[in-house]
Amino acid sequence: xxxxxxxxxxxxxxxxxxxxxxxxxxxxxxxxxxxxxxxxxxxxxxxxxxxxxxxxxxxxxxxxxxxxxxxxxxxxxxxxxxxxxxxxxxxxxxxxxxxxxxxxxxxxxxxxxxxxxxxxxxxxxxxxxxxxxxxxxxxxxxxxxxxxxxxxxxxxxxxxxxxxxxxxxxxxxxxxxxxxxxxxxxxxxxxxxxxxxxxxxxxxxxxxxxxxxxxxxxxxxxxxxxxxxxxxxxxxxxxxxxxxxxxxxxxxxxxxxxxxxxxxxxxxxxxxxxxxxxxxxxxxxxxxxxxxxxxxxxxxx
Length: 301
Ligand code: GRG
What we know:
With 301 residues, the protein is mostly helical. The chain contains 16 helices and 2 strands. The mean pLDDT is 95. The site of geranylgeranyl diphosphate has 16 residues, from α4, α9, α10 and α11.
């Protein structure tokens, strides 16, 4: 395993993200009819900006296990819709009350609070309508139902939304390490776990392999959230496309406030390498996926 060739990684990354955006576009609504404003708000939040990390992780895990068909595509779009729903709602005045996201005004700033609530709800629902298209594509494929179940459960009460509820409830209180890990594993980790698991499941990975992917993804999720905390302290709004010091504004306990900046930086590298170690135990490999995970350690956006 040689050194990461950044030039080729960056160009591959660009190409893949462009391809993912066009896949997602296929499942977005036309802006017409009496609910045109809602449809515009949905497309506004989905189309511009965003790293498309979750669909990329899903696609690359699918490829890693030898997946070739288009059945993964509606799931990729659905996952990005669920993620975007969470961002729209997280930015609302009742939650983080942020004005910028992905380099633009947040959905509620542009369309008003009521419309932003509806756009978030609509995207969550549209995600399941979109993923359900995979049943029509491959009606006899039992993996589609399993993937659908993972999509729903990693989003729900015991997934992202469950994690966010603890985050919201404890916002003004000091958190124990256990509570902090719980929140990070669910609010951020669950969708990353779901993305990689769905890729593996649809490609025909065994239950044991899917379990390993879940564990690898859990480490990616922890590293990703800790880096998010770090960037909130030392990042730049122009690069991030969202305000910095949002955690300080909201008096949030984060990995950085608990462990300090230096330890947080060390731990991003540790969890990312742990993810790679677990992936390397599997009988198949995907060099681009390894590079992607390692590159997240130094991400600035
Ligand atoms: C409000 C239902 C509801 C859930 C909210 C995940 C979440 C729970 C809120 C989003 C805000 C947040 C800080 C989430 C943690 C995960 C995270 C770091 C999201 C940002 O993901 P990126 O960096 O965003 O992949 P882009 O814009 O690149 O897609």
